[in-house]
């Protein structure tokens, strides 16, 4: 059996967006981005017009999965933060429970500032996401019944 | 793991193509990518070696359409088939919603198919899944080659639970979308049950 789906409500989504917006502003970052560990994009804030966020989400998750695998080989549970510094653009990734906070920044910010602000935002994001998980596991929600009503015809129509 | 976002009205699911080295997993994705309208797909990301063998994974997002007002997006991944990349294969199975096992129909690849299927069962278990309980499709690929094992023999050896068995020639697209449809249907049916 596959895992229980994660269900994110609108209110939680807007809370997350607000935290990302504040983080981006406070850290002078280009983009603040929340991804689940399986590579699904959750929310993004910032200058994403030209950025393929779906691919970035998948690669960030793959990156964390690979480094977590390496960590375990040397007796660590995981590496909670990863930084990749480029000539102009850099990426900072931090693991917050089962989600990843990805921040893209350039010379207008610094790794030190990003780390500081990410730490503050992480606490808020962890608490919101705990609520998301808690509510997702409740079986009897109005949302759940919406999917129970999906018919075979609905599914077939996707492939016509 | 299926991710349902009420704000953006999206359902996101993860499908993994598994199988022995050179069985055609990447070819399946490449065909889907080449035959899909640009507005329905994102980029095809291939983390490959210099000789074009999959090193970590291939990935492409595919939007199939709308169910009950929700956009359905499938994230398609392949694993590296070569035996020594087992650590990577385990990682890619995390959060999987459905699996396609791509078998190479050639006689000389029978042992590789069996080994890879056994490896899939083992790696699913290590991630807390059971092959018998997850959406699953068996694709018999390379049916156009001269030295293929007959379908009943392949099915007898590789079919695990009455899953759909689809004949394919991924390079020309035969069976590729039938396979995707078969697994996607099971994933959405599973969502209905949950």
How would you sum up this structure, described in words?
The complex is a heterodimer of chains A (160) and B (194). Chain A is of the alpha+beta class and 160 residues long. Chain A has helices at residues 10-27, 53-73, 111-136, 142-148, 152-157, and strands at 6-8, 31-36, 41-46, 81-85, 90-96, 99-105. Chain A has five helices and six strands. In chain A, strands 3-2-6-5-4 form a five-stranded antiparallel beta sheet, sandwiched between helices. In chain A, a hairpin with a 4-residue loop joins β2 and β3 (41-46). The two termini of chain A are 28 Å apart. With 194 residues, chain B is α/β, with parallel strands linked by helices. Chain B is 31% helix and 28% strand. In chain B, strands 1, 2, 3, 4, 5, 6, 7 and 8 form an eight-stranded mixed beta sheet that branches. In chain B, β4 (54-67) and β5 form a beta hairpin. Chain B is globular, with a radius of gyration of 16 Å. The termini of chain B are close together. The model of chain B has no long low-confidence stretch (mean pLDDT 94). The interface between A and B is large, with 41 and 50 residues.
Defining traits:
heterodimer, A: 160 residues, alpha+beta, five-stranded antiparallel sheet, 21% strand, globular, B: 194 residues, alpha/beta, eight-stranded mixed sheet, 8 strands
Task: Summarize the entry for a quick read.
The complex is a heterodimer of chains A (160) and B (194). Chain A is of the alpha+beta class and 160 residues long.
List the helices and strands and how they pair.
The complex is a heterodimer of chains A (160) and B (194).
Chain A lengths: L5 E3 L1 H18 L3 E6 L4 E6 L6 H21 L7 E5 L4 E7 L2 E7 L5 H26 L5 H7 L3 H6 L3
Chain B lengths: L2 E3 L4 E9 L6 H11 L9 E4 L5 E14 L2 E9 L7 H7 L5 E7 L5 H17 L9 E6 L9 H8 L6 E3 L8 H18 L1
Parallel strand pairs in B: 2-5, 2-6, 6-7, 7-8
Antiparallel strand pairs in B: 1-2, 3-4, 4-5
